């Protein structure tokens, strides 16, 4: 894949570049601030963009805002946020539009897992760190439809939001696949979401609902 990287830390940026080159990817641009990132994406038309959230000039959520602008310009371009912080103000909208990943730097413990996640996002899927999922699922209003789910359905929903297949959910939660399928049907019914055999569409449907129930103008950080 042709990759553009937006990362202000020189050591982190060069490390990602070397990792991707060794894995056979083509890094077409590497930049350190949000403005240069937007210019590089427009110039090089990459297959995927890797973005840190805190970048110059403001060092707040510049990367996340740049990601939203990139998605506005090109709705189909895959985006991978790679950060030390959980930001929900912009990431919910990004997640609902698909081809999106959000991993936390300190929790990327296996290089192959990271490369697999990058490939999944590049192919139109999702890859969300569990801490990010927990922030998206955290009720922000007194009434939330997810309150109607059983604890086990909440567990399955969180796994769905991470982009896991039914088989992976079953393995993680120590269930059989038929039980997982039953939980998913129940979740979709309780949340009044249309059933689908497309795992990606199910994730988007769940996150679309979460977007409607997530509020707060300031980024959440954990």
How is this structure best described in words?
By secondary structure, the protein is α/β, with parallel strands linked by helices. It folds into two domains: 2-135, Rossmann fold (3-Layer(aba) Sandwich), CATH 3.40.50; 137-213, Winged helix-like DNA-binding domain superfamily/Winged helix DNA-binding domain (Arc Repressor Mutant, subunit A). It has helices at residues 10-22, 34-44, 62-73, 91-96, 111-122, 130-137, 151-161, 166-173, 177-190, 199-213, and strands at residues 2-6, 26-31, 48-51, 79-83, 100-104, 126-128. A six-stranded parallel beta sheet has the order 2-1-3-4-5-6, with helices on both faces. Helix 2 (34-44) packs parallel to helix 3 (62-73) and helix 8 (166-173) crosses helix 9 (177-190). The radius of gyration is 17 Å and the shape is globular. Residues 139-143 and 215-222 have low confidence and may be disordered.
Structure summary:
The protein is globular. The longest helix is centred in the C-terminal third of the chain and has 15 residues. It has 222 residues and is an alpha/beta fold.
What is the name of the CATH architecture of the largest domain? 3-Layer(aba) Sandwich
Please state the CA-atom Rg, rounded to the nearest Å.
17 Å
Relevant CATH superfamily of the largest domain:
Response regulator
Largest sheet: 6 strands, parallel
């Amino acid at each position: 894949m042709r990759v553009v990287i937006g990362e202000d830390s020189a050591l982190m940026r060069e490390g990602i570049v070397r990792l991707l080159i060794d894995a056979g990817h083509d890094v077409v641009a590497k930049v350190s601030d949000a403005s240069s990132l937007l210019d590089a994406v427009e110039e090089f038309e990459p297959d995927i963009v890797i973005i840190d959230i805190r970048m110059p000039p403001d060092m707040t959520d510049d990367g996340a805002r740049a990601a939203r602008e990139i998605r506005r310009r090109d709705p189909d371009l895959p985006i991978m946020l790679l950060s030390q912080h959980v930001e929900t103000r912009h990431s919910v909208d990004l997640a609902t539009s698909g081809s999106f990943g959000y991993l936390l730097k300190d929790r990327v413990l296996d290089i192959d897992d990271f490369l697999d996640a990058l490939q999944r996002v590049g192919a139109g899927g999702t890859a969300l760190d569990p801490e990010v999922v927990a922030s998206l699922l955290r009720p922000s209003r007194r009434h939330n439809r997810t309150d109607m789910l059983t604890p086990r359905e909440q567990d399955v929903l969180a796994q769905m939001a991470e982009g896991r297949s039914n088989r992976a959910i079953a393995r993680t939660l120590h269930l059989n696949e038929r039980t997982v399928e039953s939980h998913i049907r129940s979740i979709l019914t309780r949340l009044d979401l249309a059933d689908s055999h497309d795992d990606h569409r199910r994730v988007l449907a769940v996150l679309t609902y979460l977007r409607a129930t997530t509020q707060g103008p300031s980024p959440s950080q954990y």
